[in-house]
Every structure is written in C-alpha cells, then in structure tokens.
Amino acid sequence: MDATLSNIDLQRSNYDVDAIRADFPILASEFNGYPLTFLDSGASAQKPECVLRRMDDVYRRSYANVHRGAYALSQAATDYYEGARKTVARYLNARSDDEIVFTHNVTAAINLVAHSYGRRFLERGDEVIISQMEHHANIVPWQLLRDEIGIELKVAPIDQAGNLLLDQLAEMFSHKTKLVSLTHVSNVLGTIVPIKKVIDLAHERDIPVLIDGAQGIVHTRVDVQDLDAEFYAFTGHKLYGPSGIGVLYGKKDLLNTMPPYEGGGDMIERVTFEKTTYRDAPARFEAGTPPIVEAAGLAAAIDYVDEIGMENISSHEQELLNYATERLNEVDGITIYGEAQHKVGIISFTLDKVHPHDIATIIDSRGVSVRAGHHCAQPLMDWYGVAATTRASFGMYSNKQDVDALVDGLKYVKEIFS
C-alpha cells in the first residue's frame, strides 16, 4: 500500500501535528510573505502527499476504463476502483460492498435518494422532516420533489446555541411522516447532531432516515451498522481526498427496491429498443464512466486517516476548538454563532460594524484563508438574523499557530475599522 504516512512515527502516542503538516505540500506555501494559514477545511480539505501520489500513479501506470475491458490495463483500473469501494465499506463498517454507491459528491447522493427513493415511495401529502441547520443540498432536492409530487417539508427547530431540540422533533412525527433527512454535523455551527437518538426515534415509528455526513465523516468515526440509518452520504474532498467523488451508503435490500436515477452504460443488464433491465445496486446507480482515479484517491485518503486514527484527530481538533474559542473571545465586538455542548472544529462569527467579506479579504492579505458568506445555509442565517458570517474551520493539520494568526488578523481588522 502506497498510502503510508511519510512523516509520522506511528509508534508515538502523541499527536504530532507538525509531522502531519509536512505530509500536505500546500501548507508550505506563502502568500504576501506570510505563511499559509488555511482555515477553510470545512469547505474543502487539503490533500496529503499519498493521495496526490496515488492519483498520479493511476493516471501514469494503470489508467483505462473500468468493468468493460478484458485487457490487463482495464483490469488494473477496475481493481483500483472496486478496491476503493471495499475500502469505503470497511471504513463505514457496511455489511457489504454492494451498499456503497459512488456519486459525484454529497449533493448528488442526496438528489439520488430524493428522486429515486422519493419518487418510488413518497406520495402527495407525505412529510419529510429536515432541520433548521441544513445545508442547501439537504433542502433544495426535497423542495424539488415537493413541487413535483406534493410532499410537505417540516423543519425541526434548534435553540440559540445550535442544539437540535429532540423533544420537539419527536412531537413532529405523524402518520404522514415518511422520511427524516438530517445533517450529522452543521457546516455553519459545528453542532454534532445526536443522530443515533434521532434514528432510534424514527425507527420506533418505522420511519427511514437519511444522514448528510459531509462534515460528520471528517470529525467522527462512523459505523453504519451501529447507527442503522437507511442512508448515509459523504464526500471525498472534505475527507482529504479528491473532489468529484462522493459516497451514498444505503442498505442493500432498500437500494435494490429503488429505480435508477440516471440511465446509460454500465448500469444495465440488457437493452433493447422495447425494454431495458437494470443491474442490482450499486451498479444501477453508477451510469457511465465513473470517477476512476478519484476513487483511488479517496481510498488513499481513507487509509491515511485510518493510520492516524479518527479518535486522535477528533481529540486534537477538540483541543484546538477550545483554544480557538478562548482566543477569539479576546477580540472586541465578536459574536460566535454555535455554542452547542457537542461540536466540532467549526467556528462562525461576526464582528461589530465589519462585513464578513471585508474580514475575509483583509486577513487574506496576511495569508489567512477563511470562508465568508451564508455557507449554503441561508435559512439558518435568516433564523439568526444575519446575512452572513465569517467561518474558520479546522482540519487534522490545523494548529495553534493558525488560530493565533487568525486572531492577530482580526485585531488588525479592528484597527482598520476603528
């Protein structure tokens, strides 16, 4: 396996963030004479050398189209692609490789469920429950389905700190509730939703559950058998892998009841002009040439995360979150949004009399990269009564120097606007 850690002594019990940073080439960059302080991992994480090397190696030595070729190169590419499926299944503790569908990203995975499962099993008047803190990717697909067939969307509330109100969620269930679709971790607030409790509540009423794991998979260990959700979706580019590939986990028997979402090559058993029959999942949901090299890169990223250990990464990020929260509160006029009891390394904030975009632009001149805007969560922004926030989000490679650079940058912003 070529995804071994090049700079980390795995015998050590301590978390060596400097060694981890050395595995990410881009972190050695400078901007305007300042070292890069990358605090936008919540949007897309940087890539370790092993991912870059794996993808380059496949392109250079093993690239061909998969599944169709009887020649050696095609077989090698197929081994990479299907091997990646096995890696994902192992990482999620899925019962079968057949429960892993490769998509383009989380958005594509949720759309697949909305338009395949939704069209097959939901009817006019049926209810889908989402939450106040959903990303647009877990709102808009259901609105499209609502406009097409007449389902209803119900929105589970949160409190001011960003905690999901479980008791009120439970009261929303009715005989018309046919699906719950919730985020695992809020991309704005960092809130860790107690999805196991949500799933248990739903299953007591025989209601299936979809989990948007775009942020959850990055910060916590996910065991789909333990969770028992019907669907769990995540994306490669936030998990230190490439963009262009995502994953939909679905229970095998359920996937095979769902009609194909897209039609084309590789998802069929037999095509005539009169009728087409389809392969079982996951193939029926992977029409056309798939993200071959991206799958290999995702597998390398998962191997990398696994060798460091998600528990170690989570512990490091929690320590950094505590440090960052303390330091940011030193800045006059700051308001932090999202102070749930259980949250990950995502901090959204505003500064009095300074627009978030101005903050991001000014501190970028000092090498600090943060996100500013509504973060594809406009209903949540509306609920808090703000148009936008600035967001700093951490990855496994983030360190206290990054936090200090952010705080220094914000104090510089305050000087400019004083």
Structure description:
This protein has helices spanning 17-21, 49-62, 72-92, 106-121, 140-149, 166-172, 195-203, 216-219, 224-227, 252-255, 292-308, 310-328, 356-364, 378-384, 400-416, and strands at 30-31, 34-35, 37-38, 100-103, 127-131, 152-156, 177-183, 209-212, 231-235, 246-250, 268-271, 276-278, 334-337, 346-351, 368-369, 371-373, 389-393. It is built from 15 helices and 17 strands. Strand 13 (334-337) and strand 14 form a beta hairpin. The longest helix has 21 residues, at 72-92. A seven-stranded mixed β-sheet has the order 4-10-9-8-7-5-6, with helices on both faces. It has a four-stranded antiparallel β-sheet with strand order 13-14-17-16, covered by helices on one side. Strands 1-2 form a two-stranded antiparallel sheet. It is α/β, with parallel strands linked by helices.
Main attributes of the structure:
418 residues; alpha/beta; four-stranded antiparallel sheet; 15 helices; 17 strands; 39% helix; 16% strand; globular; disordered N terminus
Chain-wise SSE layout:
Layout: H1 17-21, E1 30-31, E2 34-35, E3 37-38, H2 49-62, H3 72-92, E4 100-103, H4 106-121, E5 127-131, H5 140-149, E6 152-156, H6 166-172, E7 177-183, H7 195-203, E8 209-212, H8 216-219, H9 224-227, E9 231-235, E10 246-250, H10 252-255, E11 268-271, E12 276-278, H11 292-308, H12 310-328, E13 334-337, E14 346-351, H13 356-364, E15 368-369, E16 371-373, H14 378-384, E17 389-393, H15 400-416
Parallel strand pairs: 3-15, 5-6, 5-7, 7-8, 8-9
Antiparallel strand pairs: 1-2, 4-10, 9-10, 11-12, 13-14, 14-17, 16-17
Helix pairs in contact: 2-11, 3-11, 4-5, 12-15
